[in-house]
Amino acid sequence: MTVGTAGGTAALDAGTRELTRVVVLFSLTGRLDPGRPALGSLVDTFDFGRFALHLTSSEAVLPVPVLVEDVAPADLRLPHGDHGLDLAAVEIAVLATPRGDLTLALDCGFAGETPSAALAAWLADSCFDRDRITLGSEDLLDSLSGRLAPREPLAFGQNVHQLVFPGGDLADDLLGPDETRPPTLLNELVYRGRLSTSEPPHLSRHGRTLSAHGRGVSVHAGWAEHVENGLTLVAIGMVSALAVLQRTRLAAFETMRANEQASASSPYEIRSLISQLSAGVNELQLDLAFGVEAYVDSLLIPEMVMEAFQSSLRDALGIRDSLDNSARMVERLTSVISARSAALDAELSERDDRRDRTVSVLVAIATLIALPPTLLLAFFGVNATTVNPHRSVFDPRYLPAYLLAWIPFLVLAVIGYVRIIRTGRRSGSLLTPADPIPAQRPPSGS
Q1: CA distance 330 to 327
Q2: Cα gap 169→112, rounded to integer Å
Q3: What does the pLDDT read at residue 305?
Q4: Which of 192, 225, 258 is the last residue in one of the domains?
Q5: Do 44 and 96 fall into the same domain?
């Protein structure tokens, strides 16, 4: 999305750059220790100029830097070399959102000329072979792990965005008249030279500023450094939101499978399963709200320059449609879990009713068959010829009387126990897997 400004705002936001700057953003998987202290706020760490006031008011929802370090340019090595470019400065920053999602930023400055073909090759190398980037004698992520001591191992996520801020002759070529600009220049940078020559969509030029982007690369020329940092923050939000969406989608499918493949065999296990599923869905809802929705609107930096880039990049990445679809999936999961919980409550209530009826019947029967023990007591209590006062009440001769009195009670106890057990096992009907959640068809025109 091309952004241009005019008048006083243009004077504040426009700038020239001698050296080309490239900021490469990588989403990371893994978790840091929640008690790890941050290095301060973004505004305290990076220059955001006139945007700082907006960011200060939104500080609670912004990512915070947990590592910011300058490293020797010679220590950062790409798998296929430097492609003829002279790397002059490298800053590594790791930022964590309030939900714990991590983004790695490599802020690189190049001295001398940066031919578009060489820069495009450097961009492709740092994107497609990022697992082979080294810092000193270690892999990049191993080196970061040594600095951060994460609670879970770090790994590269699926999402990368590279922001190019041209300087020197490259900036002059990009900002010059259309008729003097090489026809493949923007295509080489935005699409890394992998597509046929074409002008990126939504491209226009106003005065001395230019912005254009694809899904993975954006080019911004003629902007002051605080605008570059603001654009970088917008891209960090998009990369983080996309990573959260992808993780949420996978977690939603795992929750669905856990619901379908549950092996609980008692009401208490079913209740525990429902509790676990509900907790998982609650986390999904929090991720969608505070890991995605918080970064896909213009509330953080309500400025035209930022809004235009954010809106265009969000559309290019398809975040809005993915967010809507993921939210509907989570709603369906919530409905399924609620239905299972309601079915469990109804079944338990019915089971308790059946058990109460069983106990009532047993008490009534016990009352009716209490006569044999009464007769037995009366038998031993009377002065009858069949009762020998010199024999014990436990004499084997009295065994028929005992059997006559107690066998009905034993039969009653067995029948009652069996019925109560069967009543409890009927709750197993709740373990029938829920119907598959229907796939959501995307809106027409998507």
Answers
A1: 5
A2: 9
A3: 79
A4: 225
A5: yes
Q: Name the DSSP class of 47.
A: -
How far is the C-alpha of 236 from the C-alpha of 216, rounded, in Å? Answer: 12
Q: Indicate whether 159 and 93 sit together in one domain.
A: yes
* Residue 445 located in a structural domain: no
Between strands 20-29 and 102-111, the pairing is antiparallel
Domain boundary among 294, 319, 346: 346
On whether residue 442 sits in a domain, the answer given is no
The answer to whether position 287 is within a domain reads yes
For the chain, the domain total comes to: 3
Side chain identity, residue 61: V
Per-residue CA distances from 402 to 143, 164, 300, 368, 371 (Å) = 83, 98, 86, 18, 13
Rounded distance, CA 337 to CA 434, Å?
Answer: 9
- Give 341-373 pLDDT, tens digit per residue: 777 777 777 777 777 777 777 777 777 666 666
Beta-carbon contacts of residue 160 (< 8 Å; ≥ 6 apart): 24, 25, 26, 27, 127, 130, 216, 239
Query: Do 307 and 190 share a structural domain?
Result: no
* pLDDT, tens digit, 9 for 90 and up, residues 105-118: 999 999 988 998 89
* Residue 358, domain extent: 349-431
Task: Kindly state whether residues 341 and 252 are assigned to the same domain.
Answer: yes
Q: Is 221 helix (H, G, I), strand (E, B) or coil?
A: strand
Are residues 129 and 156 in contact, defined by beta-carbon separation less than 8 angstroms?
Answer: no
In whole angstroms, give the CA distance from residue 25 to residue 241: 13
